[in-house]
Design a protein that fits this description.
globular; single chain; alpha/beta; 2 domains; 6 strands; Nucleotidyltransferase, domain 5
C-alpha cells in the first residue's frame, strides 16, 4: 500500500512485485479497510500545537454509487472513465496553517451547511482552538455556520478565488489581451504612419486606433475596477491604506458614466458585493496581528499534489465505502510523511511529519522517526474494535 500511495499504479506494482493487478489492488484495499480513521487518530493522540488558523477546501471525488449501505468490500480495479462521473463525493479537508496537519476531514455529498456544521462540531469535540477560517468564496457563506459553533471565529475569503470570480463575472480578460496586441502592432509601426506617402501604414494605424477605442469604450470601466481590486488584494496592508483605497474606489466609481454603459450592472453588483463581504475580504488587513493568510494556496497545493494525482490515476470508485477507506489512507499517509521541500517561514518544518509538528499529548508508544505508521494505525483500529 505504501508503494501504491507513493503514486505507483497497480500496473507498476504488477511489474515490480511480480504479482497480478488483482492481487495488488486486493491487498491495498484490505489494508485501507484495517486503518483507523484519521479523525479518531486525532482524538486519541490529542495534538497540542495547533495555531487555530484553519484552511478549508473541498475536492471532488468521483464515486459511481453513493448513499448505499456500507458493506465490506474492495476498491474496484482501475478503469478509464469516459467523461465526468455524474455522481460523487466532496472531500472537505481542514489543514492547520502552521503545522500543515489535518485535524479533521469529512466526505460529504456536497459543500452544504449541514455537513459543514458537522465538521465544525468535530473540531469542537477535539478542542481545536479555532480562531480563523480561510476558504474560497463559494465556501465563504457556508463557513458562516462556523460562528454557530465558534461564535468569535474570523472568516477570510481566499483573494485568489475572489479575484478569479471578478474575472469570470466581467469576462474582460480576453478583450484586454486583444487590446495589448493592437497596441503592440501600433507601436511597431513607429512614426511611419505620419509620412503622407505611407498609405498602407496610415490605414493600418487608423484601423488599429478605432479597434482599440472600441474595446476601451466597451471594457474600459471593467478594466479600471479589476485594477482597483488587484491593488486591494496585493498592495493594501494596513487599515489606513484600506481607508485610502476605499475612498479612491468610491470616487472612481462615482465618476463613471454608467447610464448607457453596457456592463453597468456588473460593476454595480460587484461594488455591492464587496461591501456585503467586506469583513471577510479584508480580514487579513483588519487583523494584521493575527498573520492571516490571504489565500488558500497551501490547501490548493495539497489538493493538486496529494489528492488529484492519486485519485486521477484510479479514475474513481464504484461505491462510497471504498472511497471513504481510500481517502482516509491518503490522509493518514500525508500526516505521517516527512516534509522535505518547505520554503521561507515553513522551512523549519523540514524533516518532520505534520502530526509530529502538531505535538501529540499521547504518542501511544509511536516513534515518528523509526516506527511503521501502517502497523501503528492497524493496531489502533484493532484495539479500538476490542
Amino acid at each position: 500500500m505504501k508503494n501504491h500511495l507513493n503514486r505507483n499504479s497497480y500496473r507498476i506494482l504488477e511489474d515490480n512485485e511480480g504479482m497480478s493487478r488483482n492481487t495488488a489492488y486486493t491487498l491495498v484495499n484490505q489494508t485501507t479497510e484495517e486503518l483507523i480513521h484519521s479523525n479518531e487518530l486525532t482524538r486519541l493522540l490529542k495534538p497540542q500545537n495547533y495555531c487555530g488558523i484553519l484552511l478549508i477546501d473541498g475536492k471532488y471525488v468521483p464515486v459511481k454509487e453513493t448513499g448505499e449501505e456500507k458493506i465490506p468490500g474492495f476498491v474496484p480495479r482501475s478503469t478509464k472513465r469516459r467523461g465526468k462521473t455524474k455522481k460523487g463525493l466532496v472531500a472537505v479537508v481542514c489543514i492547520d496553517y502552521l503545522t500543515h496537519d489535518i485535524p479533521v476531514y469529512d466526505l460529504c455529498l456536497s459543500e452544504n451547511s449541514f455537513d459543514m456544521k458537522k465538521i465544525f462540531l468535530k473540531l469542537k469535540e477535539i478542542n481545536y482552538p479555532l480562531k480563523i477560517v480561510v476558504c474560497d468564496e463559494t465556501m465563504g457563506q457556508i463557513a458562516e455556520v462556523a460562528r454557530e459553533v465558534f461564535p468569535n471565529v474570523i472568516i477570510q475569503i481566499c483573494l485568489t478565488h475572489y479575484s478569479k470570480t471578478i474575472e469570470r463575472t466581467f469576462v474582460a480578460a480576453a478583450a484586454k489581451r486583444t487590446y495589448h496586441s493592437f497596441q503592440k502592432q501600433l507601436n511597431f509601426l513607429g512614426e511611419s504612419f505620419l509620412i503622407s506617402t505611407h498609405h498602407h501604414d496610415i490605414e493600418k494605424a487608423v484601423k488599429l486606433t478605432n479597434q482599440m477605442a472600441d474595446l476601451e469604450f466597451q471594457y474600459g470601466y471593467l478594466w479600471q475596477v479589476q485594477e482597483l481590486f488587484r491593488d486591494l488584494f496585493w498592495k493594501v496592508c494596513s487599515e489606513k491604506e484600506l481607508a485610502q483605497w476605499e475612498n479612491n474606489f468610491n470616487r472612481r466609481i462615482s465618476f463613471m458614466n454608467l447610464k448607457n454603459y453596457p456592463y453597468a450592472q456588473k460593476i454595480k453588483d460587484r461594488y455591492l458585493d464587496y461591501y456585503e463581504k467586506r469583513e471577510s475580504v479584508t480580514a487579513s488587513i483588519l487583523h494584521p496581528e493575527l498573520d492571516i493568510p490571504r489565500t488558500t494556496n497551501l490547501i490548493e497545493g495539497w489538493n493538486s499534489t496529494t489528492m488529484e494525482l492519486r485519485i486521477s490515476s484510479i479514475r474513481g470508485f464504484k461505491k462510497e465505502h471504498y472511497a471513504r477507506n481510500y481517502i482516509n489512507a491518503i490522509i493518514l499517509k500525508y500526516r505521517f510523511h516527512k516534509f522535505k521541500d518547505c520554503k521561507k517561514k515553513f522551512k523549519v518544518l523540514n524533516g518532520k511529519s505534520p502530526l509530529e509538528i502538531a505535538k501529540p499529548l499521547n504518542t501511544l508508544g509511536f516513534h515518528f522517526h523509526s516506527d511503521d505508521w501502517i502497523k501503528f494505525c492497524k493496531k489502533l483500529k484493532a484495539d479500538f474494535k476490542k
